[in-house]
Automatic annotation (TrEMBL):
<protein>
    <submittedName>
        <fullName>UDP-2,4-diacetamido-2,4, 6-trideoxy-beta-L-altropyranose hydrolase</fullName>
        <ecNumber>3.6.1.57</ecNumber>
    </submittedName>
</protein>
<feature type="active site" description="Proton acceptor">
    <location>
        <position position="17"/>
    </location>
</feature>
<feature type="binding site">
    <location>
        <position position="253"/>
    </location>
    <ligand>
        <name>substrate</name>
    </ligand>
</feature>
<dbReference type="InterPro" id="IPR020023">
    <property type="entry name" value="PseG"/>
</dbReference>
<keyword id="KW-0378">Hydrolase</keyword>
<dbReference type="GO" id="GO:0016787">
    <property type="term" value="F:hydrolase activity"/>
</dbReference>
<feature type="binding site">
    <location>
        <position position="152"/>
    </location>
    <ligand>
        <name>substrate</name>
    </ligand>
</feature>
Length: 353
């Protein structure tokens, strides 16, 4: 059986879309392997948006390039398509459906029409269950909410390691690429609270275009450790007592690790879920990156560690937001169910070993 993934990753787009696609593909491979079915994976990317090529190849996936985002992909034969791209919609997806493929869309904007069999949106919003009712076909299966967050396997097993919390320890991370370089702003904020006995881990991706600046900043700070492409993000989250970070998928990584957050949104599509979580005392929303500076971050840190106000104190039991029985394994079961119920009419070719 063949799976094709349409996704891009770059310093502007970030790596989150590609990472969650890889996570789902690996889980689907594992689930199908139990039925002696081999799933081969092709990743279709736009030339120049290839920041995670090494990760794709390390996972054993083939990479296929197209010249622009909206390129026709009818020459790529697949039984299943996963489409995770803000600039693609029903116009791109419809030919895939007509080809007989099972089409899975991952989205969190709810701002355009989709033509797919399965839609995944892990966001937590006040109107989550109705966001896509007018944007998808009536028979589309919708998996909505943090239960379906496509987190890497390490996050579901880290609790077994019993990683101890370190008091007064901060984790700083704004994603792999951090196009707004909010990491540097957070590091500058640490200078403003030197009187507090704080330590910190800082995580960035190898493709971060501000990497050298951040390296130099960290070298000037005591008790701050920089991690590039950290393979143990879940352990770092369990170790910290609070995180300064962005919204997006990191909300769900943070919550499953029961880690309080001081959140700065770095993209408009992160605001709604962050505001919703803040209203439920699942984070403290400092503000959008355009309205935040190092003094604002420093004040939030001082409030958290010194005043320990009621709002931050209630950031507890966050792991109840992201259940351990969800994630990519749960989504894979839904995909396999659709395969099993529709394969006769769609003529799937199943390769058994």
């Amino acid at each position: 059986m063949r799976l094709a993934i349409r996704v891009d990753a770059s310093s502007d787009i970030g790596s989150g879309h590609a990472v969650r696609c890889v996570t789902l593909a690996k889980a689907l491979q594992q689930a199908l392997k139990a039925d002696n079915i081999l799933l081969k994976v092709d990743v279709v990317i736009t030339r120049g948006a290839d920041m995670l090529n090494d990760a794709f190849k390390a996972a054993g996936f083939s990479v296929i390039y197209v010249n622009d985002i909206h390129c026709d992909v009818s020459h790529i034969k697949a039984d299943i398509w996963i489409v995770d791209h803000y600039q693609l919609d029903a116009e791109f997806e419809t030919p895939l459906v007509k080809s007989g493929a099972l089409v899975v869309v991952i989205d969190d904007l709810a701002n355009r029409q989709h033509n797919c069999h399965l839609l995944i949106d892990a966001n937590l919003t006040n109107n989550a269950e109705h966001r896509y009712n007018t944007l998808v076909t009536q028979n589309c299966v919708q998996l909505i909410g943090p239960k379906y967050a496509l987190l890497r396997e390490e996050f579901y097993h880290v609790q077994k390691k019993m990683v101890p919390r370190t008091s007064n320890h901060i984790l700083i991370c704004f994603g792999g690429s951090d196009p707004t370089n909010t990491t540097s702003m957070a590091l500058e904020a640490l200078k403003e609270v030197k009187d507090l006995p704080l330590t910190a881990d800082v995580v960035i991706g190898a493709g971060n275009t501000h990497k050298q600046i951040i390296i130099e900043q960290v070298q000037l700070l005591d008790k701050v450790t920089l991690h590039i492409d950290s393979p143990n993000m879940a352990e770092l989250m369990c170790k910290a007592s609070v995180m300064i970070g962005a919204g997006g998928s990191m909300h769900w990584e943070r919550c499953i690790c029961d880690l309080p957050g001081l959140i700065i949104t770095i993209a408009d599509n992160q605001r709604e879920a962050t505001q919703c979580l803040a209203s439920r005392y699942a984070c403290e929303y400092i503000g959008h990156v355009t309205s935040v500076n190092r003094e604002v971050i420093a004040a939030a840190l001082r409030n958290y560690f010194v005043k320990n106000g009621a709002e931050t104190a209630t950031q507890k039991r966050l792991n109840k937001i992201v259940p351990l029985d969800g994630g990519a394994a749960s989504v894979s079961k839904e995909i396999i169910y659709l395969i099993n119920t529709k394969k006769d009419e769609r003529g799937f070719t199943i390769e058994e070993h």
